[in-house]
Each structure stands twice: as C-alpha cells, then as structure tokens.
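Supplementary Data S3. Sequence and structure tokens for construct A.
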Amino acid sequence: WYVQATYTIPGVGTKLGASYGESTLDGNSIDNFNDNENSMWTIGAYHPITRHLNLVAEYSNVERDVDNVGAGNSKAKAKTISLGAILFF
C-alpha cells in the first residue's frame, strides 16, 4: 500500500510532499525466505522554475526485514538524498 500528501505554498508555488508505503512478499517452498517486508517514507520539496522545469529535493528512508529460512532475520536500511530537476514536455 502507498499514501501520499502534498501542499502547495500559496504565492510561491513550491510544493511540499510526504509519502509512505509498505510491501510484503510471502515466500514459498522454493524460496530461501519465509517473508520479505519493505517500507519507505519520503519527504520532498518541488519548486517550479518555469512551467516546464521544477527543481526537486527529496529525502527517503527505506527499511527491509527478511525472515530467512533456517538463518533467522536479516535487516537492511538506506537513507537517500536526491537533488535534481524534472522537465515536463
């Protein structure tokens, strides 16, 4: 599942946004895991330079939890900063 919300600052045009999502993958008899759970949240700012060009800044946090068959749980985390531009055409 995934949820997202944004708010545009009046007069400035900058859009602020936040999102959160989770996914689950159930293993079967062929896989080497029982369950694989992933979650991610992101916050971002999107500023229009022109009608077709936006500057973008985002921060994301990802977590993964895997229940391995016979080997216990393993966890992974990642924190990411993204800077760039979006060109609409």
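Construct B, processed identically:
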Amino acid sequence: MKKILITFVFALISMMSFAQSAVKTDDGKYNSYCEVFGYNLFGVGKLKVILDMGYSTKNENSLFGEDGKKIKFNSMMEVLDYMSKRGWRLVETYFISVSSKQSVVHYVLEKRVSSEAEKTEGLIIKPED
C-alpha cells in the first residue's frame, strides 16, 4: 500500500512540475487576463468601471488614482486606453443582458507577465464598496 501511495505522490508531483513549466514560454512570461466592464446609471454621467483580476473574493474592483480617489471615465474607450498604456491589450468583447432594455459590454484584456506582481503594475485597484 505504501509503495502505491509513494508512486502516486511522485507521479502527481512530476505532473504538477510539468504543468508549471509548460505555462511559461521561452521568454519566461505567460498570459494573464483581466475582465473590464463599465456602466452608468440611467445612461447619464461618468462610468462606473469594474475590473475582475481573478483573485479577489468579491471579484469586483475599481481603479483608483495616486490621490486615492476613484478614477472616473467618460467612455469605455477611455478605460481601454488607460489599460493599454499599462501593458494590457484587448482580446475579446461580449455582451451580457442585465435586463430587457440594457446590455453590458464586457472586455477581456490580456497582458504578458513573468510574475503576479506585474499584473497590477501601474494600477491601483481596490475592492468595490
């Protein structure tokens, strides 16, 4: 029984190490993803922008400036420009209907990183209130 268990553990460890090494490419980087969407109440005013970086328990985060205040955007193109300047690129867009009269556009962004710290480089992200 011990031999079977030890063999199983070694097989599992070798599979995990192979999977981890297969993620990174020759340059040591891998793709990291982020989902961004924005909306405004009644179609008036600045956009409320939500980011899903994939690691928050709530998965709803907002962008903040150096002054500690939430950044307000006029349009989603302004948001995409902001993210592009920080190394993110648009991969895909899709719609989700939240009511019969309103659809929300979601943007999937990608960034090549070599560590998790690079993922949020240049961004101040805090959970939504």
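Helices lie at 2-23, 76-84, 116-119. The chain has three helices and six strands.
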